[in-house]
Amino acid sequence: MEKRTLNRRDFLRLTAAAATGAVMAACAPAAPEVVEKVVVQTVEVEKIVEKEVKPAGALKIAFWTPASQQDIWGEKMWLMTDKFNQAHEGELYVDYVYTPTTAGTQMVEKLLTNIAAGSPPDAAYFDRFIVPSWAGEGSLTDITELANQAGVKEDDYFPFAWAEATWKGRLYCLPFDTDDRAIYYNKDHLEEAGFDSDEKSFPTSIEEFDAMAEKLTIKEGPRFKRMGFIPWSGQGWIFSYGWTWDGKFYNPDTLEVTFNDPKIVAACEWMVSYADKYGMENVESFAQAFGGEAQQPMDAGLLSIEYNGDWMIAHHKRYKPDLNYGVVPMPWPEGGRAATWAGGWSWVIPKGAPNMEAGWEFISFMGSPEEVHWYCVETSHIPTQTAYAADPVYTEDPHHKVFMDLLPIANCRPPLPVGNLLWNDQVEARDLMIHGQKTPKEALDDVTEAGNEAMKKYL
Amino acid sequence: MTEKAMQQAIVQPRRQAATLLRFWRRYQAVIREVLSHSVLVPLAIIYMIPFFWMVSTSLKPDTQIFLWPPVWIPKPFMWSNYPGAISFIPFWAYIKNTLVIAFFAIVGVLFSCPPVAYSFSRIPWAGRNTLFMMTIATMMLPYQVTMIPLFILFSRLGWVGGYFPLIVPSFFGGAFYIFLLRQFFMTIPQELTDAARIDGASEMRIYTQIMMPLTRPALATIVVFEFLARWRDFLGPLIYLNEPKKYTISLGLQMFRLEHGTEWALLMACSIVLTTPVVLLYFFVQRTFIQGITLTGLKGV
Amino acid sequence: MQMFSLEALRTSRMARRNLFYGVLFASPWLLGIILFTAYPLVASLYYSFTEYTVVNPVKKFVGLSNYTNLILKDDVFHRSLYNSVYFALFSIPLGIIVGVGLAMMLNMKIKGQPVYRTIYFLPVLIPDVAMAILWIWVFNAQFGIVNTLLWQLFGINGPGWLASPVWSKPTVILMSLWTVGQGVVIYLAALQDVPRSLYDAAEVDGANALQKTRHVTLPMITPVIFFNLIMGMIGSLQYFTIAHVITGGDGRPGQSLFFYAMYLYRNAFAFFKMGMASAQAWILFAVVLIATMLVFRTSARWVYYGGEEAR
To answer: What's the CA gap between A116 and A108, in Å, rounded?
Structure first.
């Protein structure tokens, strides 16, 4: 009994303390700046949970996407879907189903499970670089004939996009949007260190670049106050530097995996030299910061130069609008070249979809050049169709212009059925290399061997 | 000496001894309080530090989340993040869905698990131990490989898309709870049940009138655990639900992850709001964990 | 003679009665196993002998090659197994010691007991998606709270924690202690069942607090310690979610956090190698089963059931 009263008393005390705290905080002198939370959201949350508004007689098809309507890409996609539904009122109705993933874009448990059980959706939003992997396993519908009838041609698209969309000469997806990568650098930092911060003066040789990065690095005791450049932060994968060193990751004719190309090994050795120079652990925490999304070090002023994607332009605008930065292609060694690689999304019809024709109707609309262009302008993405990519709206922003200029020569990750395996292996290989657990040659040899072994059954 | 004085001479030291004993007892109690608080308070602070960080982040404007040195006290306090978080996703709808699932699941396990535990602990029957071992063995296979055949099974039943795959199995027991309850049942003295049996009570009566009341803390525990499991379950709702309006809160939280980046402040705010119902549930449930349940009718154990 | 047969009759009737009631009370679970557990279990065993890609329903039979490839040729398999065993070996005893200790302290009649109990339980309520990012921030070697405090309060230059291949597993083990509140709940429930009369008897015998703990409290809660030990073994060898989210699925740095279940998950859902993943699952099953049987065998010696019924 006594115990009970004590419990209640404590609870009351706690509540009182909390209430007092809240009152005090509310009465605190108002901060001079009024900060508005920037939340981009025009799709009413209620719309997601309201009862189905399927018009009578319409065939309902399911469309799965990892883009939630709360985020700008999902919002625009939803508006496009709505537009389609209105245009097809009475015949077709597309159900926009948001399907989250556990980690990244490659883990598609729901899609896989449903294909296995024979209940896939009729259309899905799909990461383009794994299309060959899924196509090789027969889990995507071959849309070559449908595309031919609709007049979709290889020439409509950038080479890298078409390469990823096909496997053994057959088309399995409609490329949608894309992205590519380059070097972001902090102009203020460069000027502080005595460099000319203009884009035209930025070094194009890797040796000058290394020297600049070293000068920009500030160490305070055992801690880094600021790092000049970390090769493996942002989008600094083995792919990124392999192409800059002019290496070849696979042979398009024989489909042989060649990750251990000497030029790629050289690129990795350069990358590892940074680990040796600065000591891994302190450096790793920069790259690892903030939930694996390693863009933030530049916002926090901790990193001067970073290799990252075009979407960072929007990110900096939101999180650090006063960041004074420039964008240039990645510098290269002798025998190398200005290079970048592109990823992006696509539209697919899973194998065994109940309404294939209707599904095609939908994705050919969503993947049509006009819609893609509209979407890309709204979301600050980049289209895969060359026709619209030349539109000046994409080059208005001088930073963005650099990304657009790199597109024609952009590479794509090896469009092989082992593509996903290769991606994961190179992530691990990079990790092992920079921690000194394997030499670049060893790690790349292992990836090559595993890749070719796994390719055997597809050849 | 007077008689009174003699009496005084005897009583006085006794009274002094009694007082001394009282002081000693209270001294012990005070020491106990001081010692435990001196351990519990710093430990509690350590436990709460990540929580403080969550709260701090939830109140920050975007531009202060990734600052170095890290900012603990946001300037200004973005209280708007809380209503913002709740309106960012279909919060109430998803909470309702999750509560519905949790409710039925809890009813299911309360209905199905205790009898099995009783069978494993208080009824000596052939094959019992084998079945018990099998029960534990079912937990040893990682779910990732049984997920797909199970899904196919539910798909053939036509249950995919609804809540049945998430609720119905609870009515058929759960290895974790069966094992836990069995351990609790085993601590109840055999004499009680033997005495009842001799008195002619049926198994049903022994079960409902003796065993269940005695294991209230254990039952409360599985209520909290099952609630928590349902609150956090992600993979189940992910693969079985095909309509966003039926989603649960764990799927809803993923909406804070954007194409490039995450709404950190809103996510933290939402996560904190979500802990409230479970905290309240636990706060009231743990009142049953009050020591001193005496087993009546048992002398000289 | 007559007496024997009567006795025999009575015991066999008892046995049949017990069998009837035993099965009756266990029937929900028996049904559950038949309905929901048997098929997936058998199916996954079958898959482990095939090359099953999930998307292609044709399953090519390959005999034991999944198993032999994993055990004999696969470095990553060995590393992932090592990581999980390492994690289990340290997190289980630590979890039990901290859990029991905390539960006993939270069981004492002190002021603010319910508040403390709730505080230690709070961490269990944090959603995984938030917890992962929380830990990355907290343990960040450059500007995380832990290293900041270590530097400011003790002048120690903290290690790389999650970023260091050497420190990452200890860090993850520490993280697992943060959610020890879940085990504490079970211990608290068990502590309520220790009869007061035992403590009174011990006091009469002149036992002090420490002796009471050793000779009354601990033995009486061994059934749930046993439970948490078994569940700890099963759970920690399957440790997956938080590490998966923190490392983005690849167990970096240097694969030091690439746990067994992560490799399994990858094979199953990213590489179309469900057959191999199933083999991994059954290998783990065998390992856990053996370990559990060993613990069961020793349990008679240290687990004390107040009900006096031996296991």
So the answer is: 12
pLDDT at A180: 92
Compute the mean pLDDT over every residue in chain B, rounded to the nearest whole number: 85
Give the pair of three-digit tokens for residue A323.
Answer: 């960041």
Residue A185's alpha-carbon distances to A43, A216, A229, A330, C82, in angstroms, are 36, 11, 9, 11, 41
Rounded to a whole number of angstroms, the distance from the CA of A112 to the nearest CA of chain C is 7
Q: Which domain holds residue A159?
A: 55-180+343-409
Number of other CB atoms surrounding residue A393 within 10 Å: 11
CB contact under 8 A, B32 and C282: no
Chain A residue closest in CA terms to B75:
A31
Q: How confident is the model at residue A107 (pLDDT cuts 50, 70, 90)?
A: low
Same structural domain for residues A98 and A196?
no
**Does C134 sit within 8 Å of B54, measured CB to CB?**
yes
**Residue closest to C101 by CA, chosen among B43, B287, B224:** B43
C244 in reach of chain B (CB within 8 A): no
Q: Which two tokens stand for residue A134?
A: 């899924």
A151, A276: one domain:
no
Which residues touch C98 (CB under 8 Å, ≥6 apart)? C177, C180
Q: Are A334 and A348 contained in the same domain? A: no
**Residue among C187, C174, C168, C189 at smallest CA distance from C253:** C168
Q: What is the pTM of this model?
A: 0.87
Q: Between chains, do A286 and C272 touch, taking CB under 8 Å as contact?
A: no
Q: What share of chain C is helix, strand, coil (3-state, %, to 5)?
A: 75, 0, 25
What are the tokens at B111? 């209905």
Architecture of the domain delimited by C64-302: Orthogonal Bundle (1.10)
Q: Which of B115, B133, B190 sits opposite C309 (nearest CB)?
A: B190
Asked if the Cβ–Cβ distance from C56 to A435 is below 8 Å, we say: no
Residue A92 belongs to a domain? yes
Shared domain for A300 and A313, answered yes or no, is yes
Which residues in chain C have Cβ-Cβ distances shorter than 8 Å to B214? Answer: 193
Q: Identify which of C179, C189, C209, C168 has the alpha carbon closest to the alpha carbon of residue C86.
A: C168
Residue spans in chain C of domains classed CATH 1.10.3720.10? 64-302
Q: What is the CATH number of the domain that holds A309?
A: 3.40.190.10
Tens of pLDDT, residues B11-30: 777 788 788 888 877 887 78
Tokens 């549930």 -> residue: B281
**Cβ burial C238-265 (10 Å sphere, 16+ → b, else e):** bbbbbbbbbbbbbbbbbbbbbbbbbbbb
CATH number of B81-288: 1.10.3720.10
Inter-chain CB proximity A289 and C114 less than 8 Å: no
One domain for residues A331 and A452: yes
* Contact by Cβ (8 Å): C44, B149: yes
Same domain assignment for residues A111 and A195: no
Contacts of A285 in chain C (CB under 8 A): 140-142, 144, 160, 163
Instruction: For residue A261, give how far its alpha carbon lies from the nearest alpha carbon of chain B (Å).
Output: 32
Measured between beta carbons, the chain A residues lying within 8 angstroms of C159 are 281
Angle at CA A89, nearest 5°, toward A86 and A90?
170
pLDDT tens digit string along A377-428?
998 899 999 888 888 899 899 999 999 999 999 999 999 999 989 998 999 8
Q: Is A32 within a domain?
A: no
Touching C (3+ Cβ pairs <8 A), the chains are A, B
- Output the six-digit token pair for A400: 């963005």
Q: In this complex, which chains have at least 3 CB pairs below 8 Å with chain A?
A: B, C
CB contact under 8 A, A431 and C252: yes
**Domain positions in chain B:** 3-58, 81-288
Residues A300 and A433 in one domain: yes
Chain C residue with CA closest to A352: the answer is: C55
Residue A115 lies in a domain: yes
Q: What is the pLDDT of residue B172?
A: 95
CB A440 within 8 A of CB A447: no
Q: Does a structural domain hold residue A22? A: no
